[in-house]
What we know:
mainly alpha
Amino acid sequence: MQYRQGNLGAIQQLENRSDEQLLSETKHRAAARAILGARAAERHDSGAARNFFNEALAGSHPQERPALRQMMKASIALAERRPDALKDAVEKLGQEPPSSRQLLLLRIMGLLVPPPGSSALVRVRGVATIVFVVIVLLSLGYGLAELVALPFGGLGMLGGMLLGLALLALILGALTLVGRRRQAKAAGARAARR
């Protein structure tokens, strides 16, 4: 009876195992390969994720293949940083789709750090975007430092850059702290609702 239930039913049992243990799994090989594929997708390694899911598809029962294909589509969309495809695939799985903020962050990540196998032009665009963002942030920090120091006679270029960098680090640190507190509060609220 359990064999008829299929291999993918064992995914929850195998989730806590390490990658090495999953690679050596023989009884529920398809479920182990599906977990390894999902983990590879979380590392944004689309090639490895695709290989693991293809192995899982080959070892699964025909009744399990549609659900496994949907899992594969969602994982590959995450690995390749395609937010629209990820949202569609997760909705077809019957799960809650990622929030608009999460999809926006995935889009930004796809712009800044393109997936492996992207063209040289896309990778150059990503590096140029990162350099542009750093220059803009440094100039904003320098401008704030000069604005603060203007009543005291101003600052030199090097002093302004150093103070601007310190101000920028302070502001980003404060934003990170506030963001983590909000995330912890939201996680506590979700846990209380369950």
